[in-house]
Amino acid sequence: MAKAAKEVETEEEELLVVEPSELDELTHAEMLELYRASTYQIQFAKHQQWGTLAGAMALYVLLGLIGNYASKSGFLFKLSLITSLLVSVGAIYSLIIYQFWQNSEREKLSLMASRLSNLTRQVRGVVSERERNMHRYVLLFFMVMTLILANWILIVFLSPKT
């Protein structure tokens, strides 16, 4: 028990000792600005992902309205179905591109964080990289599945009723 308490004290003391980065002031300031820019790029790409999902959903509603009022054997009806499939493919492709963009920015953040203080590395290490990746890819999976499901619902909605 006493040994475990000493280990905890040692870990707490290590957390309290802050080792500054080895960078000179100008390089450190430049690194912080690059860090901010990368975090902004990640936020922007996430915003674009959600915007792509919302935009595709809005297009599905519009295509559903157009297809519902068009003649079932006419050109406009067929165009609605084809457009819905193209919207799905384009939106899924965009979501994946935005995910790769975020991953590139995260790699830059990791590289920059390794050059900053030990406190920065400890804060970034609170959540493991594996856990963060799992959360990101589960969310991407649900975004893609939402697009596929919405397109399927649109096609079922527009299919001729017998």
Show the helix and strand layout.
Elements: H1 2-16, H2 25-69, H3 75-113, H4 118-124, H5 129-158
Helix pairs in contact: 2-3, 2-5, 3-5
Brief description of this entry?
The protein is mainly α and 162 residues long. It has helices at 2-16, 25-69, 75-113, 118-124, 129-158. It is 84% helix and 0% strand.
Describe this structure in words.
The structure is a single chain. The protein is an all-alpha fold and 162 residues long. The protein has five helices and no strands. α2 (25-69) runs antiparallel to α3, α2 (25-69) packs parallel to α5 and α3 (75-113) runs antiparallel to α5. The chain is elongated and about 75 Å long. The relative contact order is 0.13.
* Gyration radius, in Å: 24 Å
Enumerate how many helices there are, as a single number: 5
Largest sheet properties: none
Shape, please? elongated
Low-confidence stretches: none
How many angstroms does the end-to-end distance come to? Answer: 75 Å
How many extended strands? Answer: 0
What is the percentage of strand-forming residues? under 5%
Structural class: mainly alpha
What's the average pLDDT?
86
Give the helix proportion (percent range): over 70%
Give the SSE string: HHHHH
